[in-house]
Amino acid sequence: MLPIYDIIVVGAGHAGSEAAATAANLGSKVLLITIDMTKIAQMSCNPAMGGIAKGQIIREIDALGGYSAIVTDKSMIQFRMLNCSKGPAMWSPRAQCDRMVFSEEWRKALESIKNLDLFQDTVSELIIEDNIIKGVVTDLGFRFYSKAVILTNGTFLNGLMHIGHKQVRGGRISEPSSYGLTEQLIKRGFKAGRMKTGTPARLDGRTIDFSKMDEQKGDEQPQNFSFLHTEPILKNQRSCFITYTNLKVHEKLKTGFKNSPMFDGTIKSIGPRYCPSIETKLVTFSDKDKHQLFLEPEGRETIEFYLNGFASSLSWDVQLSAIHEIKGLENAKIFRPGYAIEYDYFDPTQLNHTLETKLIPNLYFAGQINGTTGYEEAAAQGLMAGINAHLKLTNKNEFLLSRDDAYIGVLIDDLVTKGVDEPYRMFTSRAEYRILLRQDNADLRLTERAYSLGLASKQRYQNYIYKKQKLEKIIDFFKTQSIKPDVVNSKLQVLNTTPIKQSVKLINLILRPQVNIFNIIDAVPEFKSLVDEIIYNRRNILSAAEIAMKYSGYIQREQQIANKLKRLENVKLKVDTDYSKFLSISTEARQKLDKIKPKSIGQASRISGISPSDINVLLVAMGR
Fold this sequence. Notes:
The protein starts with a strand and ends with a helix. It has 21 helices and 22 strands. The protein is 36% helix and 18% strand. Strands 1, 2, 6, 7, 8, 9 and 20 form a seven-stranded mixed β-sheet that branches. Strands 14-15-16-17-13-18 form a six-stranded antiparallel β-sheet, with no helix packed on it.
């Protein structure tokens, strides 16, 4: 007799792994079903975590008690903080990982959770009775029953790979597709579509001439991703390398255009705008005579390299001949060619903010099934689906993040409110409160809430309290302590900033762009004593304190704006409202409102096609 589970998670990619771990750690009995247990949280594309806005998401997942940052720290081979030349709202951590170790560490993490079972099979059918989810059926004929199901199928739903005119059914190279679920859900009234993504060739590092390329090293003082890890982990970083395409490369690629599935109508789905194939780049940016490429190691010990920026669905011989025209790759051998993959997704406006489907209670979608692209976006959705599935089953209030709480809140609100017409990728520009949503303060924003849920561990909470107390102490010191000209003027002259004529508060000095908090340590003995008391994460705590002081005016102003707009989120709308009766608003607005059924005026105002006058009509109708 098979056990009955609280939650079944279908798919063990980044979304599924976070969903299963989260729900199980909260106390639900969870079954995670995956096609291949040796490829849990597989890095299907580039072997890296984080990046612009994505690094903020990983830090948020970590602050909430997820595993992505922990696994990244244990597997990373290079760390870089991107956008350091810009303001701190733009700083984004990125880690190059050993993809084999990454998957191994994820499996270890999942196997250590007592409420979590794993099973290797393919789910082909959902068990639905009286429009309530009851479980799943697998290809091997197993019937597993549960109170909730989270679908995190990635690119496997009717997945079809393209290499030139060669088509191979699969969700990933050498892995089979999943069939049956899309068709079953469409019959239940769900709207599905097709999307495309792609990946480049993998190269044999022994055949690459790195001396012809620019070396890209990691940061001199690499950080950790996880707030749990208080001591530096990464040592002996591996470098990445930069090279470029050229006109000869472009000519070689163009010879394959006539047989390209991208251009001959074979591929009809839409690919990611911000991670296009190399052939798309040549068409979209026809005036460019070169494109930047990155050679990224797939692991610490392996000779395999990922050619970032060269995703392609052209025939393998065209890919190889073009690669041989790239500086440093004249004699390169490939382990496998690049390919494009088409797969099914479901319109995310069919979801609530909890990621539960509107049509079938207790059925949740997370990851690429919702039209997103990227490990980080998927993992964030998995975490939130796991939390909310558990909370619903235990009759507790839903857990939601607003747009000024987290990038995760922006991501989910964008999906369920605006929908997608191309693979969704997170950027800092999508967050209107990005000064509030920095990578350095994710724990300060979210860990206390996660601890209240029972998801963040006691150690994580203690680390958060320690950091919070030290930050407050540093900021208070700068606000109350004065410094005399004879103590600091020699340092100010070295820093090319105006000397002071009388004693000033330290807070006034740190506001100068030429001065950073580490300069103050050397100049003020009392502050050095305070710094010496910081045992853990000293550099990160000092940096976070400096950001909080330097940008306090901007932070306060943005928080005030967020608080004002939040009032609209508190004006609730009835889900069963018939908007077709609101003849004073536009036809488009009525149709969009009926489709999405927003839960608040705030959400309604973010739906494309809804004008301020439409919102005013709704407010008047509510007696506001």
